[in-house]
Amino acid sequence: MWKDFCSLFKKDCQMMIAGKFFLLALGSLLLYTLFINFGYVRFMKAELYHVYLYDPQGTQQQVSDLVYPVTSLEELDKILVADATGVGIDVSSGTPDIILYYGSEKVDRHRADYAYSLLHTDRGYEAKTVGTNTPELKQRKEISCELLFIEIVAVGFLGIASVLFKEKQMGVIRVHAVLPLKKSLFILSKITVFLLSDLVFASLMTICNVGFTSAIHILPAVLVQTAILSVIMALAGFGCTMLLNDFKQFSLAYLVIAVFAAAPVFLAANTSIKMAWIGWHPFYQIYMALKNAYFGISVTTPVYYLCSACGIVVLFLMIQPAFRREMGKEG
Amino acid sequence: MIEVKDLTFSYGKDKQALHGLNFTVGDGEIFGFLGPNGSGKSTTQKILTGILKGHGGKVSVFGQDIAAAHTQDFFQKIGVLFEFPYLYANLSAIDNLRYFSSFYPAGQLRDIEEVLEKLEFKSDFLRKPVSSYSKGMRQRVSMARALVSNPKLLFLDEPTSGLDPSGAVLFRRIIEEERGKGTTVFLTTHNMMDADLLCDRVAFISNGNIAALDTPQKLKEKNRDQRVTISYLYQGKREEKTIEIPELEAGIPFLHDEIISIHSEEPTLEDMFIQYTGRGLS
């Protein structure tokens, strides 16, 4: 059985090389690295929220040095128009009222809390630094995680399809029906090739963009989450390829997956859009586990791993009949 | 080697493909399965090779019920040539054959290059990708794939398709050689010449039923026309006459200067097929 698996694995590697899949992955890695190092980290630096205080009666005594006093409401208005992330505090009525000109619901709450905390330095409201990440490292980890997720969900998924559709067109899948080998090895070999390719990609992506020293600590956890996502996507790609007739149909199915599976995850995780059901979305759980892995927080709940394992087994069992049907097809 | 009793198969509720086939194939026999497209030939072959499951009736291969026979051991003993040359286009002939043969025990395998040489494969293409091969060359590599594992039972689907006449003659010779070694051959075709020249027995299949089963010779003899047509020269003029065969016993029963040709009116296998099934093969 091991010999059969090695033969299949070797052939799948040859197919991947012939299909220029490695070049595509390498190109993606280069593009992402250039984007992170020369674009994202340089131009997406989030500035601190500036807090402006209008307190004509001088009621606030323990104000932080980070608060900028203004002398009139007109001046406060002018500053807030110019400073999009700024927070104004109007204490002219005796109680502090928060003024925000731009923003969204979730972020506003953070900004308001931050502004209030600067008014009460005596009560221990000063912000604490959580973890050892510098703002740049935090940015690097966040964007690396997002791009790795996109790469596996999108490019990896399309990769297995491109290799399998070639085999379908050549008809060679049918030959495997009469070869003396366990048919499930054919699926396992494909999944292994793409899993290894995704693990190498995740390692390089993390090392190149997070830095070797930081990467070495988080890499084991990142690779575990990458493996879970990679196997699920490869199995889903395998199933879709077996069920659909050509790459055109597959592209349509891919769009559906992108719109209904990946998009809500990004929206829920990276914007203020609320989706009450998102906790039930399997990709959301994997995405958050991957993000936590990047920040050194390992997912320890066995339910997550149990559900992932069950999902993988169910997908594996589901694609078997489709694979057998493809083997029995006529020219 | 193969025993089929009341074999039925349906692709759906209303798509009955086989309606109770009965036949046997003996050890070392070349058995032809003849029928037009959609007659049930490929379905039968798929059942026998274990690709299709869910048939009715009793099928046994190598003396074992087919449902239990589809083990790795079973697949090691069979060789299958598909209707189309299914090969990895980006790999060479050698790499394709190395890959496919890697699943068989090493002691069972023939030398790949030797098999290809026997099939008159152009040696300068051995290491070039299959995508650069002609249809005939691909068919040779596919045949090599079926033969390289030294199978005891060979399933051949349209083996001479895509070959030029000399290639077809070569393939027929190789099939004969395989039979000479004791290999049983299940030949699925609608090429009457292949069936006539190669098969010990043929079955005519039409609409999922076997319409006739016998040796090609007997099938033709049963319906033979007892006449011959004689072309001859008489007083400088070419003439032609058709007479009953018994009339020849006392010699040519008419005046002539020179006999040019004598043709028996023996029907072809295709004539027989049409007679039994009411339809042509193509």
Give average pLDDT of chain B, whole number: 86
Order of SSEs of chain A: HHEEHEEHHHHHHHH
Would you identify the regions of chain B where 5 or more consecutive residues have pLDDT less than 50?
A: none
Indicate the multimeric state. heterodimer
Domains of chain B (count): 2
Number of helices of chain A: 11
Weakly predicted, low-confidence segments of chain A: none
The figure for the number of domains of chain A is: 2
CATH third-level topology of the largest domain in chain B: Rossmann fold
Strand content of chain B: 25-35%
* Strand order in space, largest sheet of chain B: 6-7-8-3-9-10
Largest sheet, spatial ordering of strands of chain A: 2-1-3-4
Percentage of helical residues of chain B?
25-40%
Mean pLDDT across residues of chain A: 84
Q: Shape of chain B, please? A: globular
The outline of chain A comes out as elongated
Biggest β-sheet of chain A, characterized? 4 strands, mixed
Please report the distance between the alpha carbons of the first and last residues of chain A.
29 Å
Question: What report would you give on this structure?
Answer:
The complex is a heterodimer of chains A (331) and B (282). Chain A folds into 2 domains: 2-42 and 133-327, no CATH class; 51-123, no CATH class. Chain A contains 11 helices and 4 strands; from the N terminus they run ααββαββαααααααα. In chain A, strands 2-1-3-4 form a 4-stranded mixed beta sheet, sandwiched between helices. The radius of gyration of chain A is 26 Å and the shape is elongated. The mean pLDDT of chain A is 84. In chain A, 69% of the residues lie in helices and 5% in strands. By secondary structure, chain A is mainly alpha-helical. Chain A has helices at residues 2-18, 21-43, 73-82, 105-119, 135-170, 172-176, 184-210, 212-243, 247-270, 282-294, 302-327; strands at 51-54, 67-70, 87-90, 97-99. Chain B has 2 domains: 25-53 and 70-214, 3-Layer(aba) Sandwich (Rossmann fold), CATH 3.40.50; 225-265, no CATH class. Chain B has helices spanning 41-48, 66-69, 72-77, 93-101, 112-118, 135-147, 165-180, 192-198, 216-222, 269-277, and strands at 2-10, 16-25, 30-34, 56-61, 64-65, 78-81, 153-157, 184-189, 201-206, 209-214, 227-234, 237-244, 258-264. Chain B is an alpha/beta fold and 282 residues long. In chain B, the strands form 3 sheets. In chain B, strands 6-7-8-3-9-10 form a 6-stranded mixed beta sheet, with helices on both faces. The two termini of chain B are 30 Å apart. The interface between A and B is medium-sized, with 24 and 29 residues.
